[in-house]
Write a structure and sequence with these properties.
By secondary structure, the chain is α/β, with parallel strands linked by helices. About 45% of the residues lie in helices and about 15% in strands. It is globular and about 55 Å long. It binds 3-methylbut-3-enyl trihydrogen diphosphate (IPE) (2 copies) and magnesium ion (MG).
C-alpha cells in the first residue's frame, strides 16, 4: 500500500520531470585564479582581476537565459587564512567591483544579494553591500547571490542559533524543529535549491560551500581555471545537467511511469 506521503512524493517527482530540465539555480565555486596567474608568472592578484572578467561574462549569460538564480562563491570563511596582502587585495577588489558594477546590474534588471557573515567586513563595505541590495531588490531577470565570508557550517550555525533563541523565548517549540523550519532560517531561505553545482580549477571538493542546500544538487567539476571559464563552458555544464536523471530517492522506473 502506498501511503499518502508516498503518493505526494511521487506527484512531486512527476512535477520535476521535464519541467526543470534547465537549471533554475546554478551555484559555482570559482576556483583557480591564483594558478591561472602563476602559470603566466604573474602575481595572484592578476588572476583575481581576470576572475572578475569571467564573472561578468557568466552573469550576462545567466541573465539572458533561463537561469533564475546564480550563486557565486567569492570568499569563504576560511579564506581569511590567506596571506594578509592577498586578503586586503580581495577586499579592495570586492569594493571596487561593487562600486563599478551595481548600476550595470540595475540596468540589466539583476537583483544582487549577499550571503555570509558580513560583520567581519569594514563598515564602508557593509554599507555598500546593503545599498546595492536595496537598489536592485525589485529586479527580476536574475538573482545574483554573492557568497562572501560564507561557510556552509556558519550558515547552519546561525540558523540553529536563531531557532534556539526562539525556543528559549517561547516563539517556537522544540517539536517545531523540522527540515522545513531549518530551511527557513538559512541565508538562502527564499531561494530555490541549487540544481547545478560547478567547481572550476580541478579540485573535487565542496570547501564548506552550501552544505545543506547541495543535498540533491547535480555536481559538475571542470579542470578549467576560473578566469578561462566562459559562456561556452557554462553551456557544456548545463548540457551535462540536462542529460541527468534526478531521482530524489525514487527508482528510474518510477520516474518513467510517472512521466507517461
Ligand atoms: C579562487 O581562486 C578565488 C578565491 C578563493 C578568492 P584561488 O585564489 O583559490 O586560486 P587557486 O586555487 O589558488 O589557483
Ligand atoms: C573555495 O576555494 C572558495 C572560493 C572559491 C571563494 P578555495 O581555493 O579557498 O578552496 P580550497 O582551500 O582549495 O579548498
Ligand atoms: Mg583555490
Amino acid at each position: 500500500m502506498m501511503s499518502t506521503d508516498d503518493s505526494n512524493r511521487l506527484v512531486s517527482a512527476k512535477a520535476l520531470i521535464g519541467t526543470h530540465s534547465y537549471p533554475r539555480h546554478v551555484a559555482i565555486i570559482m576556483d583557480g585564479n591564483g594558478r591561472w596567474a602563476q602559470k603566466r608568472f604573474m602575481p595572484r592578484a592578476f588572476g583575481h582581476q581576470a576572475g572578475v572578467k569571467a564573472v561578468r561574462k557568466i552573469v550576462e549569460y545567466c541573465a539572458k537565459h533561463e537561469v533564475e538564480v546564480l550563486t557565486l562563491f567569492a570568499f569563504s570563511s576560511e579564506n581569511w587564512r590567506r596571506p594578509k596582502d592577498e586578503v586586503s587585495l580581495l577586499m579592495a577588489l570586492f569594493m571596487a567591483t561593487l562600486q563599478r558594477e551595481v548600476d550595470k546590474l540595475e540596468r540589466n534588471n539583476i537583483r544582487l544579494r549577499f550571503i555570509g557573515d558580513r560583520a567581519a567586513f569594514s563598515d564602508k563595505l557593509q554599507a555598500k553591500m546593503a545599498e546595492a541590495e536595496l537598489q536592485t531588490q525589485h529586479n527580476t531577470a536574475l538573482t545574483l547571490v554573492i557568497a562572501a565570508n560564507y561557510g556552509g557550517r556558519w550558515d547552519l550555525s546561525q540558523a540553529f542559533r536563531t531557532v534556539a533563541e526562539k525556543i528559549a523565548d517561547g516563539t517556537l517549540r522544540h517539536q517545531d524543529v523540522s527540515e522545513q523550519l531549518i530551511n527557513q532560517y538559512l541565508s538562502t531561505a527564499d531561494l530555490p535549491e541549487p540544481d547545478l553545482f560547478i567547481r572550476t580549477g580541478g579540485e573535487q571538493r565542496v570547501s564548506n560551500f552550501l552544505l545543506w542546500q547541495l543535498a540533491y544538487t547535480e555536481m559538475y567539476f571542470t579542470p578549467t581555471l576560473w578566469p578561462d571559464f566562459d559562456q561556452k563552458l557554462l553551456e557544456e555544464a548545463i548540457n551535462s545537467f540536462k542529460t541527468r536523471q534526478r531521482r530524489f530517492g525514487h527508482t528510474g522506473e518510477q520516474l518513467l511511469e510517472q512521466s507517461l
